[in-house]
Amino acid sequence: MISESAASTGTAGPADGPTERSTPPTLLDLTTYLLSRTGKTARGLLAERLSQRGLRLWDMAVLAALADFGPHAQRDLVRRLGVDASDMAKVADQLAGAGYVERMRDTADRRRVSVSITEAGRTALAELDAEARAVQDEILTPLEPAERHVLHDLLRRVHEGLPGTP
Asked: pTM of the predicted model, to two decimals?
């Protein structure tokens, strides 16, 4: 038996089998849901593009931090980026192996490892940035340039208000 609403729309109800995929309006009314879904899609597309180069988002984050802020002690990168110390060691090892960063022990404190970006790392970061911007353009296709600017400014304000964000 078809429900009254299904009969009027010509679609089957939940008890009658699968229906067309659609997002419930209750969720569409939640900005946090929209941010989450959009972010998940963007992150997936970016991760796919970076993986074609054998890299991950954390790799890009480390390269960006080193390019923007200069050499760091590895443990300071852990704090700056909010990544687990053992994960950072793996990222730094991979980036060093690819020639994107150099790691050197501090002569005054042998426990301290300084990480700096190389020219190859800067080149890789520029390529990764281009990939990220291509994904951004794809995700933001429905928006006009002025709308993209407003969205960016609003999200930046939200980001700056997040707990633990410097």
From this structure: 0.80
